[in-house]
From TrEMBL:
Span of domain Release factor glutamine methyltransferase N-terminal: 9-72
Name of the featured protein: Release factor glutamine methyltransferase
NCBIfam families: hemK_fam, RF_mod_PrmC
InterPro entries: DNA_methylase_N6_adenine_CS, HemK-like, N5-glutamine_MTase, PrmC_N, RF_methyltr_PrmC, SAM-dependent_MTases_sf, Small_mtfrase_dom
Binding of substrate, residues: N188, P189, P190, Y191
Enzyme class of the recorded protein, top EC level: transferase
Gene from which this protein is expressed: prmC
Length: 286
């Protein structure tokens, strides 16, 4: 047997015993990062090239450190992003919301749509929209200086056409110069109530930045309420908003986008696991 594949099998067992949700995938990703190959190329690594640092990475994952912090990278749609301590690691669930945003932009009769990403973190959403909707102009807002460094690095490396503009600012007051002109506001804000602390996976609560997790208020929706007010300020009549939430908050977020605030066509939308994941709404055009 190939030495590296044998070591990956041993690491898989160790990670499974440690409670990793996807031990085989984690072991392969760690091995690929150490040996600077793709997971599909692991079988081609010769025995002489085996790097013992693999077991250092495995030990860190066993101890609960996020896989993406160890490898320094996260995959999101068509992107490979640089991540690490101090920035929220993008999740696959958010890709579904980005897919909806891209479909909505394609359906708009707008030549160069203007998009705002509130709380951009690693810039995963902003960069995906800029890549997949080539005529879109994207403004991405992040208030945390450490996360902003990660976003800046990703934008500099991946935004070849210069369609993303980053802003270090609180999204409650950012981009007033764009008030009433934006076509789409999208956000994956913090939304976990502190009352659910004990149910959050250890590698999330111990390593993802607190400001990206805990939404504030008894229901965890205070940050989403800020997003709603900001979106209402930024959007043109007929513009759209999309906001991610947990699978238990769909009803609460639905009512945040109230009709008396000018919202229409409010809908709860589901992720690939058929769970409520994000709310979309249109600002009244009349």
């Amino acid at each position: 047997m190939n030495l590296l594949l044998d070591e990956i099998a041993r690491a898989t067992a160790r990670l499974a015993d440690a409670g990793a949700a996807s031990p085989r995938a984690d072991a392969e990703e760690l091995a690929a990062a150490v040996h600077r190959v793709r997971r599909s190329e692991l079988h081609g690594v010769p025995d002489s090239a085996f790097d013992a640092r693999f077991w250092e990475f495995v030990a860190r994952r066993e101890a609960g450190e996020p896989l993406q912090h160890i490898t320094g990278r996260a995959f999101f749609r068509y992107l490979e992003l640089k991540v690490g301590p101090g920035v929220f690691v993008p999740r696959p669930e958010t890709e579904v919301m980005v897919g909806w945003a891209l479909e909505t932009l394609r359906d708009m009769d707008v030549r160069d749509p203007l998009v705002v990403d509130l709380g951009t973190g690693s810039a995963a959403i902003a960069l995906s929209i800029a890549l997949e909707a080539p005529r879109a102009r994207v403004h991405a807002v992040e208030k945390d200086p450490t996360a902003f460094v990660h976003a800046t690095r990703n934008v500099e490396e991946l935004d070849e056409r210069g369609r993303v503009r980053l802003h270090l600012d609180d999204f409650s007051s950012a981009l007033t110069e764009l008030d009433g002109t934006v076509d789409l506001v999208v956000s994956n804000p913090p939304y976990i109530p502190m009352s659910e602390w004990e149910y959050v996976p250890r590698d999330v609560r111990d390593h993802d930045p607190a400001d990206a997790l805990w939404g504030g208020g008894d229901d965890g929706l205070d940050a989403i309420r800020v997003v709603e007010r900001t979106a209402r300020r930024l959007l043109r009549p007929g513009g759209y908003a999309a906001v991610e939430h947990s699978d238990l908050q769909g009803n609460g977020v639905y009512w945040v986008f109230a009709e008396e605030h000018g919202w229409r066509d409010v809908r709860n939308r589901r992720d690939l696991a058929n769970r409520d994941r994000f709310v979309t709404a249109r600002l009244a055009a009349d």
